[in-house]
Structure to design on (419 residues):
């Protein structure tokens, strides 16, 4: 069977390697089998028939325990609209277990990792990078031979590549590609790259690596640069990026899936202007209205709340708490969140409320107040917020305040609140 991911990447299209159920566990979260199934299906469905081309869903790490293995088996048996991957260490035991976990997957992949930096090679395996690589190469041959019977692809992750010599990384990736490895992922395992370093590293790597090598990246967010470092790698020609919903992964996580997908799929006609090069990233553009829906699903599954500051899916998107945005909403946001993401405008009552905010909320509720009563309502909202020491006044409590007034019908049939 042809490797659908390699074909997609070689055509210049983008693939995201989804890590929330795997690396996300190191963010102290745990997703059950049914939750992984629901998420993988929803993620793949964003791309219609091309889900398997654009999404590799990391189903888990089977050597953790039998429950992890069973959760992965549930994903394999119930999901066929995206590619699936199993992760493991550089041992025959982990490779054997991963192949068992992936058996029957329609688009299955097995990946294992080993370090390529001198520092991590010594700490983890007490060997030189060359010795570690020779061990990894032997395991690659073992894995390729064993996986062939099950139509599974083998990928390899080069850990701590950001602290290795770029020439050695290029040589390692080239050799693995010659052996038949599907994708070789290059890791900034500790998220130490700054954007300029990332640009230089990936530009140099792509100049030195064999054309047969298909590369991906896995870059952590410890300095907050994962997203921009991913863009630098994409600019250099790499088309597979590891991401995670809500950015959940070890320590400070990875670039968030929702931000990365939105960045590359929103206004594609402007990507040349924004990125400095032209590329057709999608066989089918993702349905961006699913981003906030899936993000809320992940939040519910993991117990990690969405924040006001989360790009694209945060609780502050398309919320209005001051009067100015009513005048010309299009100049107070970079895109129409309702049109692009399906997030309707929401009026939030805070101590910043004005008469215009109160009036708009009353219109939404089908109520009416006189100008004098609106002033009273504005003052109540501000006073109540400061009394509590909390900015947001829940609508239910605002309605309770209104209920303290006497309602009489207006001439137009819209309820009017009278004092």
């Amino acid at each position: 069977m042809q490797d659908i991911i390699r074909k997609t990447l070689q055509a210049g299209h983008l693939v995201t390697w989804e890590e929330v159920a795997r690396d996300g566990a190191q963010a102290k979260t745990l997703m059950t089998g049914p939750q992984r199934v629901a998420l993988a299906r929803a993620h793949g469905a964003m791309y219609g028939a091309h889900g398997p081309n654009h999404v590799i869903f990391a189903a888990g790490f089977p050597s953790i325990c039998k429950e992890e293995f069973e959760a992965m088996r549930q994903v394999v048996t119930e999901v066929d609209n995206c590619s699936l991957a199993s992760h493991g260490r550089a041992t025959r035991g982990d490779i054997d277990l991963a192949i068992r976990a992936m058996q029957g997957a329609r688009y299955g992949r097995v990946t294992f990792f080993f370090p390529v930096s001198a520092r991590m090679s010594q700490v983890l395996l007490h060997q030189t990078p060359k010795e570690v690589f020779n061990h990894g190469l032997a395991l690659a041959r073992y894995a390729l031979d064993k996986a062939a019977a099950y139509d599974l692809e083998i990928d390899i992750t080069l850990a701590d590549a950001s602290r290795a010599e770029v020439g050695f990384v290029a040589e390692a990736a080239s050799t693995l590609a010659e052996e038949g490895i599907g994708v070789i992922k290059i890791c900034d395992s500790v998220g130490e790259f700054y954007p300029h370093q990332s640009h230089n590293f990936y530009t140099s790597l792509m100049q030195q690596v064999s054309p047969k090598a298909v590369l991906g990246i896995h870059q952590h967010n410890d300095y907050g640069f994962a997203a921009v470092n991913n863009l630098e790698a994409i600019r250099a020609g790499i088309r597979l990026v590891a991401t995670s919903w809500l950015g959940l992964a070890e320590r400070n996580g990875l670039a968030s899936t929702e931000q990365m997908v939105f960045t590359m799929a929103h206004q594609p006609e402007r990507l040349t202007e924004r990125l400095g090069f032209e590329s057709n990233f999608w066989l089918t553009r993702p349905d961006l209205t699913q981003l906030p829906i899936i993000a809320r699903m992940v939040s519910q599954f993991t117990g990690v709340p969405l924040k006001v500051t989360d790009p694209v899916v945060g609780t502050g998107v398309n919320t209005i708490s001051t009067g100015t945005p009513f005048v010309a909403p299009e100049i107070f946001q970079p895109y129409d969140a309702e049109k692009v993401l399906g997030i309707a405008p929401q009026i939030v009552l805070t101590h910043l409320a004005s008469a215009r905010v109160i009036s708009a909320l009353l219109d939404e509720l089908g109520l009416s107040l006189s100008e004098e009563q609106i002033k009273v309502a504005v003052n109540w909202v501000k006073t109540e917020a400061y009394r509590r020491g909390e900015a947001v006044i829940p609508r239910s409590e605002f309605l309770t305040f209104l209920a303290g007034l006497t309602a009489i019908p207006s001439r137009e049939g819209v309820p009017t609140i009278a004092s």
